[in-house]
Amino acid sequence: MISPISIWIVGIFFAIIFVIGVWDRKKVQLEDYWVNARKTNKYILVATLVSSFVGVGALLSNAGIAYDGGGLATLLLLGSFFVYFLVYAKWFAPRIKEFGDTHNAYTLPDFLAHRYSHSVRVAGTVVNLISYALWLALQILGLGIFVAALGGMDPVWATIIGGGIVVLYTTIGGLRADIRTDIFQFIIMMVLFFVFLPMLISQGGGLQAISALPTSFLNGSGFAPWYVFVLGFLVLGATNITSADIWQRTYAGDTKKNVQWAMTVGGFVILAFVLLGALFGIYGHILLPGIDSNMVVPQLLSTYLHPIAFGVVLAGFLAAIMSSADTMLLVTSMTIVHDLIQKTFKKELTPDQTLRWSRWTTFIVGIISATIAVLVFSVVHIAIDAVSYIAVLLPAVIFGFYWKKATAPAALWSIILGTITLTVFLWISPTEAFIPAMFVSFVTFWVVNTMVMAQKKSLLKTV
To answer: Which residue range(s) make up the domain with 406?
Structure first.
């Protein structure tokens, strides 16, 4: 049973987060709600970027993969995100920020519509909604997993309470509230890294204990074939380029230079948390063999920490999860209101009406996702599904920025066929489904684009 001291610490944390989130709710305008008025400085951008990225996927799912047999190879798989943060910072962030400022853009589908066509916007919107609905359910599920493992509260009620707080302050304050809570949550997360990790390494026998583990565990062959890790390194981190939440942070920055700096620095901090998650799984394998991989992190916390330290560190994990959850919630609701209701269905709304629609959509999406989270219990596979869907947008975005001859039909069919391929293969082999999906997506783009260009040349000759 969880200690009353730990419960009080976590309760105080929840209260602080809620107060921060709703502090000046009456001053929030539409630009504040969606992109923080495009005035976020570079230090706050680092905090909100790291806080939103380091959630259930980077911690619980990462630890689960390492625990289930991914071992040190997990670092290759998840370390991909660090490499592509640097790629994003150098070659994409400045262009995306400039596009957002010039065209008053709010979402990734805004770019797809501007660069290609309305149909490509719709296809990208559907993929975004699928991916971020999965991400949101994953974050809210993480709240329930912690309490279920610790025995302090019924997991359903834990999910409802934790998810409810996230839904309420995000509904009221939007991205401004999200960023303000992210700053506080970032501080708590740094305590998590610098306090608990050294304790865990010490309890597990030091770094030398890793070398005593079986080779099959360390090289990841117990989790997936070697080519999954290699291709995962090449592809999965590239989803940073198509992640709607990272685009939103980029739009929210105050200058191109500061956005580029924040994405670079944030990438290094995120690498530290990727290492943290992998080490949780590896030392969990050493210290707590034979448990459910979903439970490895909360079991480590409850087993090896004093109640006071446990309460602080647990708050750190909840901070990471909540920060990702509010981001996913806001991105999902913004996609529905902006890309579906306003742009796809052509509904005219004033800024005040749009703000009201955004708040109600945020609230409803949050309730639906919390309900899904109560019914689902597999963080590893939900995380893989979510990141795989967003990957099929890569050809459309990359070629859209860096290939002047890229055409709308190529982008559209690349997204459609890539999504269909992924959906089919997720039922066959979830851990490898992204491989055929990415192959189909890129090949389709090239083939269709070649056909369209040839047709254009033929028409010019006849004219």
So the answer is: 392-463
